[in-house]
């Protein structure tokens, strides 16, 4: 009920004669949304952290990439007697890759510098050329739905869709002021996103998971193995 009251307060604030909500009330309602979103996201295996700036988000993604093993293209037949070039291919370990489509030029330059210092490949486009292994897909979400711990992304860009689907780990920044209580509270915003054609609006809840084979739960089959959500102060 408290979450719904947050929206009601916003609606009333524009009416003449209505009392504006106090700063304390706004902060309290925001905290409720954050707590609800975090609890719901963690239930579906997402990792939720707080950052104050985009620079901290870049550091988080790059450090996460540095700690993980590089994605590798799995090649059949490596156990057989092979030619020297084929044997080299089987033992080849590619460089780690971070894909961050749609980042502004200045932001991209900052993240690229962090990647280069650690020997990580940074790309903003050409994700199709790295389908054998994208380690981190880095995005900024348009909105978040507290009730279900869901991210909402305007994924009309193919580069962004690929970055969120073929990467081993998806790191998404969500500004706290873009949190909404339920999907119903996003009706106007979603209508605006979908008014442009063609469009593709993605709802992402947790890491990729499926249990369609003998009802055995498997993570990362149809998408990222991990989802890291960075709630950014605004």
Present the secondary structure layout:
Layout: H1 2-12, H2 23-43, E1 47-51, H3 54-67, H4 84-91, E2 97-99, H5 105-117, E3 121-123, E4 134-140, E5 143-145, E6 150-154, H6 158-165, E7 167-175, E8 179-180, H7 187-193, E9 201-204, E10 209-210, E11 218-219, E12 226-232
Parallel strand pairs: 1-12, 2-3, 2-4, 4-7, 5-8, 7-12
Antiparallel strand pairs: 5-6, 6-9, 10-11
What is the element string, with H for helices and E for strands? HHEHHEHEEEEHEEHEEEE
Query: Treating each run of at least 4 consecutive H or I residues as one helix, how many helices?
Result: 7
Outline type: globular
Radius of gyration: 21 Å
The secondary-structure class comes to: alpha/beta
Low-confidence stretches: 1-15
**Range of strand content:** 15-25%
- Assembly form of the protein: single chain
Question: How many strands appear in the DSSP assignment?
Answer: 12
Global mean pLDDT: 84
**What summary fits the major beta sheet?**
6 strands, parallel
Assign a percent range to the helix content. 25-40%
Distance between the termini: 24 Å
Strand order of the largest sheet: 1-12-7-4-2-3
């Amino acid at each position: 009920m408290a979450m719904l009251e947050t929206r009601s307060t916003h609606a009333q604030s524009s009416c003449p004669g209505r009392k504006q909500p106090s700063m304390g009330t706004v902060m309290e309602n925001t905290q409720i949304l954050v707590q609800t979103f975090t609890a719901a996201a963690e239930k579906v295996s997402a990792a939720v952290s707080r950052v104050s700036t985009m620079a901290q988000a870049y550091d988080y993604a790059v450090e996460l990439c540095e700690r993980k093993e590089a994605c590798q293209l799995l090649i059949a037949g490596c156990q057989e007697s092979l030619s020297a070039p084929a044997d080299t291919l089987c033992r080849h370990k590619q460089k780690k890759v971070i894909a961050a489509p749609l980042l502004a030029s200045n932001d991209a330059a900052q993240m690229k510098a962090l990647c280069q210092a650690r020997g990580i490949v940074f790309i903003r486009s050409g994700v199709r050329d790295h389908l054998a292994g994208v380690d981190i897909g880095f995005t900024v979400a348009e909105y978040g739905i507290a009730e279900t711990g869901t991210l909402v992304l305007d994924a009309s860009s193919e580069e962004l869709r690929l970055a969120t689907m073929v990467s081993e780990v998806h790191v998404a920044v969500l500004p706290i002021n873009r949190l909404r209580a339920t999907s119903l509270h996003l009706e106007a915003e979603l209508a605006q996103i979908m008014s442009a054609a063609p469009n593709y609006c993605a709802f992402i809840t947790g890491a990729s998971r499926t249990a369609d084979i003998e009802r055995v739960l498997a993570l990362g089959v149809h998408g990222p193995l991990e989802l890291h959500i960075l709630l950014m102060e605004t």
